[in-house]
């Protein structure tokens, strides 16, 4: 797991193994360093449908949002319980640590067309406040490369999303080309159901036998995300 709201935190990986009637073990825990990059692009259009544009107005909106997040996970430290094949049980934990080691690469993209409405209070030519609400259809794809396990896992799915944003555009001094200040806030959430395929391009050291070339498809794969942002802009009309 990795928190987008705290990008300076560690990447945490926890593993469980359960066999009914035999064991239910929390057998591995590691923390790693993560470098994250992201891109968010939005195209939004609206059409006035009612109200006074100088006081209170309503618009219908259409939007297309695109987001990409890439993570490179390096180094790790933690513990793991080795599995004893002959006794078919986990043994006492051992410490794990490795520096300057690539651990995992992860990329996810969202494409989200949406429809909704907005309401604007005030004059669009002077100071105003606007709220916009969108219902979205989400198309998602991700790619997970467990480098140390020689396993790649592409996945994709579709689902629904919701986005709400607010903008306050303030003109402190009127004029033909006034200075303006903008405060913005955005909240979005999405839920997606899909499937994943896992393929071993080398021998997984965490398993018994040679896994090279093996593949498992049709694995249930869900995406859930809640994001929020705030912004401040200062500018001058030209």
Quickly list its features.
238 residues, mainly beta, two-stranded antiparallel ribbon, 0% helix, elongated
Helix content: under 10%
What is the rounded Rg? 24 Å
Mean pLDDT score: 89
Q: Which class do the helix and strand fractions yield?
A: mainly beta
Unreliable parts: none
The strands making up the biggest β-sheet line up spatially as 1-2-3-6-7-8-9-10
Instruction: Please give the count of helices.
Output: 0
Largest sheet: 8 strands, antiparallel
β-sheet strand percentage: over 45%
Judging from the principal axes of the Cα atoms, what is the shape?
Answer: elongated
What is the rounded distance between the termini? 45 Å
Q: SSE string, helix = H, strand = E? A: EEEEEEEEEE
How many E strands?
10
Question: Could you explain how this protein is built, in words?
Answer:
- This protein has 238 residues and is an all-beta fold.
- Helix content is 0%, strand content 76%.
- The protein has strands at residues 11-19, 23-52, 56-80, 83-84, 89-90, 94-122, 128-146, 151-170, 179-200, 215-236.
- An eight-stranded antiparallel sheet has the order 1-2-3-6-7-8-9-10, with no helix packed on it.
- Strand 6 (94-122) and strand 7 form a beta hairpin.
- The radius of gyration is 24 Å and the shape is elongated.
- The chain starts with 10 loop residues before the first strand and ends with a strand.
